[in-house]
């Protein structure tokens, strides 16, 4: 658009610059010419775009809301006669939907240009009337086939208000002369262009945010359609869970909805597998790349593995045990061929999170996997869909990368994972811990037989013994629940003949190497807490 040539043109319709009838443009300050047509066109287009951006953002609020153009497009398709649909499919092929959207946007654009010219050069009210007309068409179209429980009109209404507000703003900027000093056409022009620029930037942000929000729903829908495949050696069904009979005891396998979560990013990634793959590169002989389907087509393995956060306080609940299916990490790495100098595997997430651990931990025979499922379900979005890493025996912050996108072979003297410069240890094996789940600390129990019960974990050494001490009494051995292997937590319980009084009760576990949890209390930073979980219980008579 060339504004300079037009700026000095007389109004093309031949009218003189009599004061317009519209209230916005009246007033003694209006001494300059009506804004050029190109300004009107720009204002109209930018206002429409701002409306569509706001509508897209509003449609990001819920899964069954549609962006305004999609609503209108869908209703056009619904209403179109069969011959027209056939023609569209014949002409545009599978691009028929795109053609429809492009067509809708072109019509919108043409009318927006007109609306902008009317608003800036004749009457703001006239321009707003066109915007309102569009808004009503969108709201009606959305309302005609609404799956969102009566809220279908919302994105179009938001779009209408945003477009109207933008048009009003641009009209004001274009028709009110800049105040002196420095007034005059150049200052007017600068102000108008600033308004256009600011709206364009906001629109781009709104569109991007709206798309990101909607992709979350796309990922949900996609995830729901994925077919599970059988691991090569499926585990036996888990044994009867003692938690069913001991109230308050943690389950053998923690349901996905109850599994603890740790995330650095506020807006969790919503990954769809068309655009996702897993790369293995860095210090390898042969960089590799796997699509989601290629991972599913490999040998799948099933393991019960306990995951713990380094920030888990003694007695804390940032720990859980789950049944995972995935591809063995060692098989992938051997296929890529690790260069002898590499000593660290740096894992990258699509959200920018990184975690690094020793190459040795991937190759020493432990069951490290790129996990695709969790407790018999496709990996939940919040736990890393489409794929995450689980390295048994290592704290999550150095290994359990969710939304995994890249395994980079490197060296500890070259790269650091996300938490390392923030004061956490480079080497982070999970420390042996045990926790009393019941009774709760500070609670009261009736005198007589009471179950003291909890869980203990020492991946990948295994738990061989848990002991309980009541008051200053002797350490007494608890009974251990069913074993799901060395890398999984173990339930334990102890039958206590409780006499009235107030007691401190503590527990401690011994791992497969014969080492008992130390009494010494250390904080979670930099490499995990130590100490015996101690609770206070009142026994009533
Ligand atoms: N992408 C990504 N992966 C991540 C994290 C994260 O913040 N971002 N947190 C890590 C930490 S500190 C832990 S303890 C585990 C927790 O996994 P969960 O949220 O599935 O329980 O994930 C690890 N993987
Ligand atoms: Mo963590």
List its salient traits.
alpha+beta; 541 residues; five-stranded antiparallel β-sheet; binds molybdenum atom; 19 strands; disordered N terminus; 21% strand; five-stranded mixed β-sheet; Sulfite Oxidase, Chain A, domain 2; Immunoglobulin-like; binds the ligand Nc1nc2c(c(=O)[nH]1)N[C@H]1C(S)=C(S)[C@@H](COP(=O)(O)O)O[C@H]1N2
Written account of the structure:
The model is unreliable at about 1-30 (pLDDT under 50). With about 550 residues, the chain is an alpha+beta fold. The chain folds into 3 domains: about 35-215, no CATH class; about 250-420, Oxidoreductase, molybdopterin-binding domain (Sulfite Oxidase, Chain A, domain 2, Alpha-Beta Complex); about 435-540, Sandwich (Immunoglobulin-like), CATH 2.60.40.650. The chain has helices at about 5, 35-60, 70-80, 80-90, 95-120, 125-145, 155-175, 185-225, 290-295, 330-335, 360-365, 395-400; strands spanning about 280, 290, 300-310, 320-330, 345-350, 355-360, 370-375, 375-380, 390, 405-410, 435-440, 445, 450-455, 465-470, 475, 480, 490-500, 500-510, 535-540.
Summed up, what is this model?
By secondary structure, the chain is an alpha+beta fold. It is 34% helix and 21% strand.
Distance between the termini: 90 Å
Shape: elongated
Percent helix, as a range, is 25-40%
Strand order, largest beta sheet = 2-1-10-5-6
Oligomer: single chain
Largest sheet: 5 strands, mixed
Radius of gyration: 33 Å
Q: Strand share of the residues? A: 15-25%
Low-confidence stretches: 1-31
Structural class: alpha+beta
Number of continuous helical runs = 12
Instruction: Tell me the domain tally.
Output: 3
pLDDT averaged residue by residue = 90
Bound molecules: ligand MTE, molybdenum atom
